[in-house]
Amino acid sequence: MAQKNKLQFIILGLLNQQPLTGYDLTKAFDTEIGEFWQAQHSQIYPQLKRLEEQGYITHEITISGEKLEKKLYHITAIGQTLLGSWISDGTPDLTATKDEFILKLYFIQTNRDPRLKAMVQEQLQLHTDKLTHLQQRLATVFPTKASQTANYGHYLILQHALGREDYYVNWLNQTLAALPKR
Amino acid sequence: MAQKNKLQFIILGLLNQQPLTGYDLTKAFDTEIGEFWQAQHSQIYPQLKRLEEQGYITHEITISGEKLEKKLYHITAIGQTLLGSWISDGTPDLTATKDEFILKLYFIQTNRDPRLKAMVQEQLQLHTDKLTHLQQRLATVFPTKASQTANYGHYLILQHALGREDYYVNWLNQTLAALPKR
DNA sequence: CGGCGCATGTAAGTAGTTACATGATTTC
DNA sequence: GAAATCATGTAACTACTTACATGCGCCG
């Protein structure tokens, strides 16, 4: 068995909230879910086909305008069962963070390496931008206490991502400050 | 062009420190570098072949015992150039963290979901264990101030991983504490 | 001399990215 | 009527995982 196919569960999870087209799902990966998972439409459409063959989803065709056909996918009862068991099953495998910057750092031998400062500064800029972006998203998507409990999981992970980014920025600042002056 | 092949740079980086066999490299992914990158020998051997064809590394054959041949790989001058330019080049793409637990959380609707508590507790256990492991590794590999500056990049990333794990554990504890009592 | 670790490879399959391809609808 | 966006698919390729396959060396 190769790596567990997580994309199928994401699709089931999204369809469990409301029926969507392949295009809608693709967009979801650009916005909402894009913070922590990516997929292109070329991966989504074949996956939808497979899920339907296996009976986890069905589709109905709706017509937009004159003749543009849209496939609106729905989750089935056994699809909901599969989704439920994935969520309930343990998650014993911790993710390896494949961070290219961290990888490069590993090969830096001394704190006098002339490349270090610029490298850290670049990452500081990038992660500060991301932090700002996440702060704005949290404020936009969950403006009130009530909205937080309404979609609790989504709130949790956004807030988690924000905290993680905050740590990263702080660490970069500390690392930069600790570099030798000349 | 598909995703940038980072494995080749890791191999070059390791060979830049000392000549190694494919087997040695494989082991490095189980220990040292395994905190933040994984690769199996089935991926490493073909990559070594390609790097040699392209002239970035060479190998010499050494005999162990009676007739067991070992290929000891060395980095070449152009291999060092390639490694250097990879490190110097910008790293503008932030890694998406594909964390399966976080993914599952996204689909939890309310903070009264009966599965939440057990899910968070399982992760708390796993991440606490990893934190402990990282603390031990940092203490083992870098026991003195002097040892930290000797292999600065390695020290930085271990210390970064430790801080990240520490944040994760704290966040899980807070999340657990914030769950409704009944 | 048996078992574990050293040592190197290939094969088959899944996951994921980039590119190719087509056409309809809406908006300006 | 042009451009952006909606909408769906396939093809080709790279990355990565799991399994298959083989043989030597060392230690007890």
From TrEMBL, chains A, B:
Domain Transcription regulator PadR C-terminal: 97-179
Span of domain Transcription regulator PadR N-terminal: 11-83
Domain of life: Bacteria
Pfam family, one: PadR
Designated name of the protein: PadR family transcriptional regulator [Lactobacillus paraplantarum]
